[in-house]
Amino acid sequence: MLVVAEGLLMYLSEADVKVLVLKLKEHFPYGQLVADVFSVLTARRVGGHPGIRQTGARVQWGIDDVRDMEHWANGIRLQEEWSFANAAELAQLGLGYRLAFKLSGLIPAARTAHRIVHFKLS
Predict the structure, then answer these.
(1) Residue 89 burial (CB count, 10 A)
(2) What is the pTM of this model?
């Protein structure tokens, strides 16, 4: 079973993210989770964005080292982590955008600001 959590986890508390991942692991013992995650800094900063504030939503969770999730339970294993700065699709963008993304990829805080992660839950 593949579970995709896009645009979800950052709105939960860390405790709720952990409960959700552990419940998924329990109910789908050979499942996989693909999710987008913010870094802690991004989670703090994006909450002040006018578009987020207008909705009344609260961004609560970010994680800097997604491998920390592996310690939540045996069998949670990071398979891949993708950064938008390294996406193959960047080749389709104009030169200015390609350069901006590539340069931002050289800065750890920018590279880890928003990522896609893939975990096996076995």
Answers:
(1) 8
(2) 0.86
Q: How many domains, in total, are found in the chain? A: 1
Domain span at residue 75 reads 2-121
| Structure tokens given for 109 | 């805080």
Would you state the structure tokens that stand for residue 7, as one six-digit string?
A: 């645009």
Closest by Cα among 8, 18, 107 to 71? 18
CA count, 13 A, side-chain hemisphere, 118: 7
Which tens digits make up the pLDDT trace of 2-45? 999 999 999 999 999 999 999 999 999 899 999 999 999 999 99
